[in-house]
Write a structure and sequence with these properties.
alpha/beta; globular; 3 domains; Rossmann fold
Amino acid sequence: MIWRHSRPAAGAAPNPPADHGTGMPPLLPLPPFLAACRQRARPADRVKQIDTICISTANRVATFAPAARSYLTNARAFGRRPELVVADDSPDPAVREEYRRLLIQLAQEFSVPVFYAGAEEKLAYLEHLARESSVPPGLIEFALLDPLKIGYHPGANRNALLLQTAGRPFFCADDDTICRPVANSATPWSMRLGDAGDPTTIRPYESFGQLEQELKFTATDLLGEHERVLGSDIGSLLTEKPDVAVEIRHSGVLRAIQENVPRIVLSWNGIAGDCGYRIPGFLFSLPEPAMQRFTQNEASYRRMLTSRQIHRTCDRLTITPGGYSQSTALAFDNRRPLPPWMPVFRGEDIIFGHVLKLFQPNAAFAYQPTSLLHVPEIVRTHSGDFLTEIAEHRSQAGLILALLQLSAKPASPPGPTDLGALARRAREILDGDLFELLATSTMHTEAEQIIRTSLAQLLAHPEAPAFWRNDLASIIRALRTVTHTQTYVYPAELSASRPAAERAAVLKRVIGLYFDLLAGWPTLWSAAVKLREREITLARTP
């Protein structure tokens, strides 16, 4: 159902009509359960100020430099002087030294504090953290470095930033983003409260040039935008926002809001530019009108499939119980422990978004109606063999989430999960005889889910062009072969770094360490807070 609440300006007619782009029946008055949320509002919990900009990087000084300057320039334009914290996974000492030199220049240019965490800084901090927390050094090393030599470990960098900022809010961006805000909402003070796991919409483009021509750039106080919502509860926002559309389709969400008023711990910016995905499968589940744009003619369709250029956004501030959390540009309320990132493999942001509920059951996500540019130094394109890639693409994220679901027991009454018990149950499954069956079953289930979604798309668009329908049918046929595969297909990163005979054991070890890290993270986070009080931090002045 969809409700509407409007608090008109002085002299305006009450409840003016509005089209929230839903195509749904007339909106209803705000229901009593949301009015009760307003009575329980705690506006004092809102983040007062975000004083830290973090950038995660590795081997990309050329893109990092304009990225860092763009965020510091935006902050300066609005009278801000935030500190800049950089977590760097570059393996070459010479590259790390280049980052340090650049940070010294930025500190002088913008008159802001800068801090750097490379391999040397992480190793030194590891010793302090192990002594302060009594957590095994090997587990801390897994969290911050790549001791198993998987070769792909962006989550370890993000864990370093979580520890560096423990007890404080911060904004974090990838090193190939540019703070050139894009406005997506004609009504900046309106808000949507929904229950969708992914409330964003996607508009594909043939090229970055085409995308850039259609964008509406704006002078936006980026950190201020996140400060307006981060740490707020739903009741406070309902009180302050003049125009609210509430879209709730499941009664369970109503009960959850009544029992535990959601509080925003993560605030996301939209993406304009490179999609950040290795395969273009998401383009085959576009809703209208993006679907019409995507299939307007075959030549344009083929260019959109390979270009990777999209605009992913929301049309207004949107609050949901959580889910989608692509980590290109996010603000975090780290005043209470957030979960650690999966240190290795891809899909760490997918896992983070789901695991967050174990740490903070009332956590909510804010999706901002402002996008930032995502422009890698080398323009990336999708392969022409996308049908095979979609069918064969695998990550460990789905397997970890399946294991999480089997291991977690909801707390009664609702509250933080017993993470130690969760890790023990996960270990029992990993060490048992059924793990490979779980892995293969998860792979088959994911394939079947994509098949069902694809069939639904075909049935929903009987008049769609033949080139689109033929491609989607080919994907379905390719996925059918996956559902008949008897063995688990290992993630590409693991397949590249380990011989076939070792992959199962290494994957089990990585997943087991991650669940151990979940259990030990609150202790590590608290130790990081205590170390900061003694002026011992992970990142240091270069």
